[in-house]
Amino acid sequence: MDPDWLPFDPEPSKPVFQLPVGAVDTHCHVFGPAHEFPFAAERKYTPCDAGSDQLWELRDHLGFTRNVVVQATCHGSDNRAMVNALESSKGKARGVATVRADVADEELQQLNHAGVRGVRFNFVKRLADKLPTDDLLSIAERIAPLGWHIVIYSEAEELDEIWDLITALPTKVVVDHMGRPDVGQPAEGQKFAQFIELMEMFPNFLSKVTCPERLSKNGPPNYDDFVPFARLLVERFPDRVLWGTDWPHPNMKSHMPDDGHLVNIIPRIAPTQALQQALLIDNPMGLYWPEEG
Ligand code: 0GY
Question: Is residue 132 predicted with pLDDT exceeding 90?
């Protein structure tokens, strides 16, 4: 593990907000354990181990019913740790994979069978080497017939650069962490307006209203500056938002959040029962378990 790595909180508080039965944590990861699932040679960080058993313990402690496990960049395009987590969840987890353009059809079929429903394109330079646009488009064309979607991770400043590429994608597109806005700016201000415009212009786009711990400058336990951004999206696009913990919170440097506190933010960004039902159950179920709808 990197010398400055902050491990996840092993004893998060019990949230005061009671999650509705059926709630889905749509953004979490597994790391290793490294002795079983070694990290990728091309990784940009080496985390602590954070295996699926610990993730299921957290799920039960917080009161979630299901998870979406997003392939972490420290495992590159070796999806075995994530797939192992899906298998051990007994149907209670679906996944988002990382694949390269030369991925075999057979591997895509196996991932689909294991419960993968999307791929992630990571544009954050500190996390992953850039994939050529042609490769991304070819991956998009290969996964579209499976009914998968594409998850985009980028910084707000990169939106201009990637706009044409992401708006041309033939699938549903999920943007991580609201496109990482600067929450020191007003939520109604000019900078976030570009992201709202993206959501308005392209109805195939969804946003995760996630990562107060990463975006907030006010910090824990209330993360006040994060709230207006997430609430604006939840209220304006109630059927196109998703929530997740981001456990085990890779690359946090300022502090390690208490996951119970993160759950307590939900009623502040989704203040009515109808908004909570959409955010926590209907939207993720439609994307990851449509057959149960
Ligand atoms: C996140 C954020 C980060 C890392 C990863 O896959 C990853 O390594 O997603 C980050 O460092 O900002 O969404 O988990």
Answer: no
